[in-house]
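README: folding subset

This subset contains proteins for which both the sequence and a predicted structure token string are available. Records are stored as plain text. Below is the entry for Ig-like domain-containing protein (242 residues), shown exactly as it appears on disk.
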Amino acid sequence: MKMKLLLFLCSVLWTSADGSAPVLHEDLAMTGCSDSDGEKMFALDAEEIWFADFKKGEGVYPQPPFIDPIRYQEGVYESAVANQQICRTNLQIRREAMKGTPLKRDPPSTPMLYTRDEVELGEKNILICHVSGFYPAPVNVSWTKNGQKVTEGTSINVPYPSKDSTFTQISRLDFIPQLGDIYSCSVEHPALTEPHTKIFDVELNNPQPSVGPAVFCGVGLTIGLLGVAVGTFFLIKGNECS
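--- output ---
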């Protein structure tokens, strides 16, 4: 497997308002490349705010528009494309310098698999497969539904660097939960001898809605009967003393 070189540029910003104590913010710019693909991403306080989609040939703002995301000046995507050639030149230099050096490999932790919203049968939702703790980047994430491979409605973000020099990636699957459906998220990485797989069973992860109200009413009825019994006891004792 050919080594993938990732280059990082981080800067720290301090801001203050009305003479108050400075607030620490972390501004991250990441450039990465291999022989076949590349990455360019900007983040603020661990939130991805822009990345270059070299397959579609455009820059992407992943945050929803209602939060008024930061916008960059024109030409930022073209600059990212130009930097890819510089990155690949540096990649060749590093390959020659590190020839014969064993590549560090950290396997990813077991993926976390959860839904974006509370499960409601028949309502659109998103399954999220969260993978962290791996090096080098990226991981390969695949999805299945009832044992069949699924590609439609899937997406994955660019690898995000952690402070311990490992990476995190999040893959998503658009789905409509139905009772009995079983989904899986499988993660492949050079440091793994076999994929890490996590299962999501719609039936098991969606308790019957009647259970909650039934338990609540049962507890309420028990407390009510207990109150009546205690009141009757003191009423009888009061009559005996009079």
